[in-house]
Write a structure and sequence with these properties.
Elements: E1 8-10, H1 15-25, E2 29-32, H2 38-43, E3 51-54, E4 64-66, E5 72-75, H3 80-85, H4 87-92, H5 94-101, H6 106-111, H7 114-118, H8 131-137, H9 165-171, E6 175-180, E7 183-188, E8 208-214, E9 220-228, E10 239-247, E11 253-261, E12 268-269, H10 273-277, H11 285-301, H12 312-332
Parallel strand pairs: 1-3, 2-3
Antiparallel strand pairs: 4-5, 5-8, 6-7, 6-8, 9-10, 10-11, 11-12
C-alpha cells in the first residue's frame, strides 16, 4: 500500500487566510484543491510538502456567474462536475463544459476542480510512477535524475500537458485571475504556459488561481471538445482538441480556433485554422474542403511523442480524425467527441 508522507494540513476559511499561510511557509507549502492529482503524486514521492493549504473551505472561490460583458466567471474551486452541468457554460462556451465532462470519471469530477485541472502538473509515463519504479529506472529529468527516457540524450523535459480544460479555455480566449498578498493580476490563459515539462506554468510563488473569466464570444458561437483515450472514462488524454467557430446569419464562418493538448509541455493553438475556414459557408462544397485543410494542418503541426501511454504513431494518425470529428460536432452541436 502506498502511503502519504507526513504533512501539516491547514484549512483556512478565507482567501486572505490561505494567502497568508502560503506567504508564511514559502517553498515548504503547496495548495490542495480537490486533491485528485496531488495526493496520488505525494504517494509516489513526486511532491513532499511540509504543509498543505486546503482551499476546500474558502467559499468565495466557488460558483459560476454571468458577467456584464456577456461572458461569465468561474471560481477556481468550482468542481468539474458543476462546470460540466452548468447550463450557462453549456450555452456560452460548450467546449469548456464538454471538456470538463470528459475529465477522469464521475467520482473524480465531483472532487476535482477547474482550477486544479488548469494547473495540473505535466505528465509522463516515465515520471508518474511509484518511487520504487522510478528508482529502478534511474529516475528522469523531471524528478531526481539526469536522463530523459523520451528523447535520447535530451536535455529538456518533454512531459506533456494533459489538462483537458486548457485547450477549451484557450479556444474561447479565457483569462485567469491570480492573487497573492497585496497583488492581483489577470492574464490571458495562453500566457501562462511554458515549453518546459518540469515547470510549464508561469505562476508566481504564493499565488492562488482564484477565478476564470470567459468573455462573450463573437457571432453565433459554436464549440466542441474531442478526446482520444483508451477507455470511456478515467484516462488522461492521448490527444485532446477544442474547436471554436463564429458563424454569421448567413451560416458563414467568420472566425475559428482549434487548440490541442497531450502533445508537448504546453497546450498549443493550431496555426492557419481561421484562414482556412473564414468566409466558408457551412454545408457548402467549400466547407468540406476547408475541414480537410484544417485536419491536414493539424497532422503536420501535432507530433505526439512517447511521453504518455499509447503508441505515438497511432496517436498521430488519430489527430486529423479527431480534429475533423470535433469540427463537425461543433457545427452540428453534437456534444463531445470521445470515441474509443
Amino acid at each position: 500500500m502506498l502511503r502519504l508522507p507526513t504533512f501539516d494540513l491547514q484549512e483556512p476559511k478565507s482567501l486572505y487566510g490561505a494567502l497568508a499561510l502560503l506567504d508564511e511557509h514559502g517553498k515548504n507549502a503547496m495548495i490542495v484543491a480537490g486533491g485528485t492529482d496531488l495526493l496520488p503524486n505525494m504517494k509516489h514521492k513526486l511532491f513532499e510538502p511540509e504543509v498543505l493549504v486546503s482551499l476546500a473551505r474558502v467559499e468565495e472561490l466557488t460558483g459560476i456567474t454571468a458577467t456584464d460583458d456577456g461572458g461569465f466567471d468561474i471560481g477556481a474551486m468550482t468542481t468539474l462536475a458543476d462546470v460540466a452541468a452548468s447550463e450557462l457554460v453549456q450555452q456560452r462556451a460548450p467546449a469548456v463544459a464538454q471538456a470538463c465532462s470528459l475529465i477522469a470519471g464521475p467520482q473524480l469530477r465531483t472532487m476535482g476542480t477547474l482550477g486544479g485541472n488548469i494547473l495540473l502538473d505535466t505528465r509522463c509515463q516515465w515520471y508518474n510512477q511509484t518511487y520504487f519504479w522510478r528508482e529502478a529506472l534511474g529516475f528522469c529529468l523531471k524528478k531526481d535524475g539526469t536522463a530523459c527516457h523520451v528523447v535520447e540524450g535530451g536535455q529538456k523535459c518533454v512531459a506533456a500537458a494533459s489538462n483537458d480544460s486548457a485547450p477549451a479555455l484557450m479556444s474561447v480566449n479565457a483569462s485567469l485571475v491570480f492573487e497573492r498578498l497585496n497583488e492581483r493580476r489577470e492574464v490571458p490563459v495562453d500566457s501562462i504556459w511554458l515549453a518546459d515539462g518540469i515547470v510549464n506554468k508561469d505562476v508566481k510563488p504564493g499565488e492562488i488561481l482564484t477565478r476564470i473569466h470567459v468573455p462573450a464570444q463573437p457571432g453565433e458561437h459554436r464549440g466542441a471538445y474531442g478526446k482520444l483515450r483508451d477507455r470511456g472514462s478515467i484516462d488522461f488524454p492521448l490527444f485532446g482538441c477544442s474547436v471554436r467557430l463564429a458563424v454569421d446569419d448567413a451560416n458563414v464562418i467568420t472566425d475559428a480556433e482549434v487548440c490541442a493538448v497531450a502533445l508537448v509541455a504546453r497546450p498549443i493553438r493550431l496555426k492557419n485554422v481561421a484562414e482556412a475556414l473564414r468566409g466558408v459557408a457551412i454545408g457548402s462544397p467549400e466547407f468540406e474542403v476547408a475541414v480537410q485543410v484544417v485536419a491536414d494542418a493539424a497532422y503536420k503541426q501535432c507530433r505526439p511523442m512517447d511521453n504518455v501511454p499509447g503508441d505515438k504513431d497511432y496517436r498521430r494518425e488519430m489527430v486529423p480524425v479527431y480534429v475533423r470529428r470535433t469540427l463537425l460536432a461543433a457545427v452540428n452541436g453534437d456534444g463531445p467527441v470521445h470515441h474509443v
